[in-house]
Structure formats: C-alpha cells, structure tokens
Amino acid sequence: MYVAVKGGEAAIQNAHRLLADRRRGDRNMPAITLAQIASQLSLAVDRVMSEGSLYDTGLAALAVKQARGDMIEAIFLLRAYRTTLPRFGYTRPIDTAAMLVERRLSATYKDLPGGQLLGPTFDYTHRLLDPDLAEGAEPAAPETRSEAEEAMPRVSDILANEGLIEEDGALPENREPGDITREPPEFPMERDQRLQALSRGDEGFLLALGYSTQRGYGRNHPFAGEIRIGEVDVEIDVPELDFPLTLGRIRVTECQMVNQFKGSKKVPPQFTRGYGLVFGQSERKAMAMSLCDRALRAGELDEDITAPAQDEEFVISHCDNVQATGFVEHLKLPHYVDFQAELGLVRQMRREYEERREGADTERREAAE
Amino acid sequence: MNAHTDNIAQYNFAYLDEQTKRMIRRAILKAIAIPGYQVPFASREMPMPYGWGTGGVQVTASVIGSDDVLKVIDQGADDTTNAVSIRAFFQKVANVAVTTHTSDATIIQTRHRIPEEPLKPGQVLVYQVPIPEPLRFLEPRETETRKMHALEEYGLMHVKLYEDIAQHGHIATTFAYPVKVEGRYVMDPSPTPKFDNPKMHMSKALQLFGAGREKRIYAVPPYTSVKSLDFEDHPFEIESWEHCCGLCGSTKSYLDEIVTDDAGGRLFVCSDTDYCNTRQEQGFQGPLNSEAAE
Fold first, then answer.
1. A104 and A219 part of one domain
2. What is the DSSP letter of A347?
3. Residue A55, domain member (yes or no)
4. Are A295 and A64 in contact (CB under 8 A)?
5. Which residues, other chains included, contact B206 with Cβ-Cβ below 8 Å and sequence gap of 6+?
6. CB contact, 8 Å: A15 with chain B?
7. What average pLDDT score do residues A346-369 get?
8. Strand partners, B226
9. If contacts are CB pairs under 8 Å, which of residues 318-347 in chain A contact chain B?
10. Pairwise CA distance, residues B74 & B80, whole Å
C-alpha cells in the first residue's frame, strides 16, 4: 500500500547534524577560532558587517564560521540577529574629515593636502600565488608613519571652496533619518533611505550595475574624487548634556565620486557627486555604491532615465541579497500542488491542439478529394 | 562573546518583540478594515529565508496567544519539510499546542492550499504570500500598480484574461487566480490552485495574508464576498479529475499525482493529508486501499 512520505522532522534533524559535521571538517585538525577569522579573514568579516548592517566583528566572525564561509548565508545570520535588537536612537553624522586615515587616495589631483596614502591595498600587488604564504612564513613587520600628521581635508570640501561642486545639502530642521529596517519602503525614496539600501545591497549586484554605467548604460562620467579608509568616532547626543558622547570607533570606507554635470535651467554647470559608505574596508563596494547613487540621482538632476542603473525601483527592489537569495532558493520548496494544476492545463491544451490539427487534416483531405 | 551569545538565546514570546507585534497588528486591523487592500508594513528579517513563509510567520506570531492551537500546512500536507520546520519554530518560540486536525486548530498557517474541510467561525487562516500584487506580472512597477488599485483600473487584467480566451478558448490561469474582494480590490489569493478560490467566498474564518519580502499584509474578513474574475460567456470553473483519491475515495478533493513507477504508473491522492486521513479513519476507502484489503 502506498504511504505518503512521513518523517520530515527526523530528516531535518539528521540533515542539520550532517551539516554541523561537514562544517567542522577534518576532526584531526584544530577548529578555526573566531579570533582567527576576525583577524585573518577580516575583509570577509567586513563584508558581512556591511551587508548585514551590524557593526560587530565577533558576531560577524561567528556568522562566517557558522555559514561555512558562504557570505550571503553569513549576512543573513547577522541580519536575523540584528532585527531582534532595539533601536535606541540616532548617532550624529560621522565626520569622515576627522577620520584616522589608513588609506586615502584621490584620482583627481596629483597631490593634495594630507597627501596620497596607499595603506593596506591589493593594488599594485602582482597577482602571483605566494608559496611563502602557503608555507606559513611570517611577513616582515609593517612600516609605520611618524606621529606628525597633516590635516586631510576631503576632496569634496576642496572643490566646494571654489563652488565647482554641489554642496552636501542641509538636513531640514527636525528631519529624522529614515530607517529601511523599520519602515516599509515607498517609491520614490528619499536619498537617505536609498543610500541605506545601497550600503547593505549586494556587492556583486552593485558592482555589475556600476560597471554598466561605465559601459554606457546611463553613463555619468565619474572620477574617483576620493577614497578614504580608516576609523571614525561614533558620537551620540544625550539630552542632559551639551556635548556629544563618543560611543566608540568604527572602521569605514568612504568613496566620493565626482561626476560631470552640464547644468540645468535652475543649476549652473558644476560637478555632482555620487556617494558610497560601507563598514570596514571595501573599496570595490564603496565605489560601486557611489556609481549607483549618482546614477539613481538622474531624476533629481533632470537627466533622461534610460538605463537599469538609473531606475530606482529596479535597483533598490533587487539589490538586497538576503531577499534575492530567499526568493530564488524558495523554488526548491515543494510546488507540486501548483504544478498539478499546470499539468492539467497543459494536458488539456495538448488535447485541444491535437483535435484542432486532426480537424484541419480532415478538412484538407476532404478538399483534396 | 559570551555576553552576546547569552543575549542571542533570549527571545520574546513568538519571537517578535512586542513593539513589532503591535506594528503588525495595526497593519492587520487596517487590512481587515479595507478587504483586499495591500497594507505596507515594516516586515522584519526573520530567522528563516525570505520566500519561505516569513510574511505568514510574522502574521501568525502577531496574532498567536498561549492558548491557541496551531496547524501548519504546505501543499495541503502537515508533514512537508517547510511545514514541519515552521510548526517546530512556533513550538520552540511560543510553546503552543499544535495539531494536524483542521477542526481542532484556532490558527492555520498555509502555503498553496486551503483545507478541504470548511472552516469555522473563530478560526484564522494565515496565507504565506510570495508576490502579493495580482497586477505584478502585467506591470512590474509598484508605483504604477498602486495607482491602478487606487483608480480601480483593472482593465489590464481583463484584457489578459480575454487574450487567454482568444488564444486558447479558455482562461489559462490555474493557480494564483485573481479575485475581486467585496466588489472593490482585485487580490492575489496567493498561489493556491483556482480549485480553492470558491472556499474563500463568504468564509466563516478570518483570512490573513502575509508577504514578508514584499512587506505587505492583506485580509479577507469573515463573510466577505470573494469573486474569481471571469466573463459572462466564460464563467469561472475549477479543476476536476477523472480519478478519485486512491486512499480515501474522495471525488471532491484536490488530488496530487504521484509517480509510482517508471512505466507511466500514476496514483492520485488527496493533497489535504488531514482530510484524507480523517476519511480513512471514518472507513472510506479508495481503489488502492480496497485492493490491498482483498
């Protein structure tokens, strides 16, 4: 006698036991520690914090370990934890001009106050697999800067002194920043919400869209005005005190893309900006984000909206990799009830098709006779 | 790290914090007040993936109390893996009683089916919805579809159904078949087969729809008119089978087709496992069971 498949519960438990075993790997080898992940796979941890929208290296390292190195799964783990946390309030805007800079470069000036600072970059490394690293050789200790540091004004401020670039814009009085994790998104979005969505958006998706603008799908003539990576203070206003309190420091990557703008009836020709800001060190993501941000400002700047990267609803609705992976992967859930309905329909339509064809054949035969 | 892990282990009753539940309940109340209208809500990230029932889970978590009895089905069955997983989730985070019997449940969370047994007053049916917008496949932009709903501009949908008839001689939509609620909003019934559409009409139970990824909640209150879109000369029809259920002999239920061998063997059985089991306990037999008894 046929018995419908039972025992989903036991199967799920066994699957999770097997997963835990595979995650552990070869038990003759020591298990990787969270400290090792946080310090030696720090760019993976940075991406998880950035797209998980939660700045916590320990939890992000745990997520990377638990996800067996699957980045989107790790981001998802961190998000699912983040969503249970209360929101106490807003910090003051971080001041990236006061950043403790580890890397800073501008492609628009040969030299500028504060200088160019390469920092820990893959740029100019020759991508040759390194046998010394494979053998666990200890690298030489890094050179360090002398204490005397020159101020490092942002390139956007330098350009603003001449009035050649649009200004930051002022926050309207009593305007609370939006929060896409607490309010349902509505289109068209305010720029603060849009930037939030982009900052937690999928690196690969934004990279591809940013790339598409360079290849002519919504070209916006970008220059990397400035990229800076380093630590900034996070400050919060406390009602009882007349000075802000510092909660701690976070490491961020900021990209200010400088773009050409012909001007419109209302605005004289000037440079416009695309902005990218992400947790940790990820130039690729910050640069891609700033290209997308600028492309999405097409409407605001009276430009024609012709390319996918300029289409706010398209970009924002599809940039979240946790949403995207969930919906794509849900196709592996059972759909046999709907499939049954489609089977019935296709069979019916096939029947009708055959009948029509037979009818036509008969007519043709009769006509020929 | 330990401080973190201690915190992680502590969750509120039914997982969501009370603020979030209040926000979702407000959305549900609004949805009930405007039947068929999609209410935007600040959907949370849940500990299961988007597309796997996060909307339904949030709705259930917001309406469930400690004295509720929960049933979870997927494809009509209580024992499909995702139904098992969601049921286990609520057992863990809300410690509620669970059942597989439709009549014993106060809340039924479902994916893709409505139980065969008519629902009773006081029961709540919670649907998991992937794409809440019935017009989405005709117009991908939310900004446009919201306008179309506001203006009650459903011509596009009627044209689509008409084109089906012109091309195939009948409407070629078998699931997620659009309905009009209380004569106003066109609504997606979630990807249930059209076989289930008539059960929504004047249902005695409250029907709530949660779409987590798309951040929408909508509702059909009890005793509300739900009409499947059709034309006077092409009235709405539901599927029928040439077979009865192989196990319980029912001729009135939605049947799954099971492939039994590699020689074209097929078995048709009820997709609603509780309905089928109950009938078998009552002594009803399908062809397969009576053969086995002989």
1. yes
2. H
3. yes
4. no
5. B32, B123, B124, B125, B219, B220, B221, B222
6. no
7. 87
8. B181
9. 322-323, 325-330, 333-338, 340-345
10. 6
Q: Are A160 and A210 contained in the same domain?
A: yes
Tokens of B227: 């009409």
Write down which residue in A326, A341, A358 finishes a domain.
A326
Neighboring chain A residues of B130 at a CB cutoff of 8 Å: 327, 330
Q: Which two tokens stand for residue B138?
A: 């005709």
Looking at the 3D structure of chain A, how many domains does it have? 2
User: B280 CB near a chain A CB, below 8 Å?
Assistant: no
- Cβ(A98)–Cβ(A185) under 8 Å? no
Pairing of strands B107-111, B69-74: parallel
Same domain, A59 and A108: no
Does A162 lie in the same domain as A50?
Answer: no
Tell me if chain B has a CB within 8 Å of the CB of A8. yes
ipTM for this model: 0.88
Residues B124, B179: Cα–Cα separation, whole Å: 20
Which of A323, A330, A341 lies at the smallest CB-CB distance from B193? A341
Q: Do A113 and A73 share a domain, yes or no?
A: no
Q: Which domain holds residue A28?
A: 10-82
A261 in a domain, yes or no?
A: yes
Question: Catalytic residue at B276?
Answer: yes
Q: Which amino acid is at A168?
A: D
Question: Per-residue pLDDT tens for A141-167?
Answer: 998 877 656 788 999 888 888 888 888
Q: Supply the pTM of this predicted model.
A: 0.91
* Token output for A69: 């190195």
Summarize pLDDT for B34-75 with one digit per residue, the tens.
999 999 999 999 999 999 999 999 999 999 999 999 999 999
DSSP letters of B102-146?
A: GGG-SEEEEES---SSPP-TT-EEEEE-S---TTTTT---HHHHH
Let me know if residue A15 belongs to a domain: yes
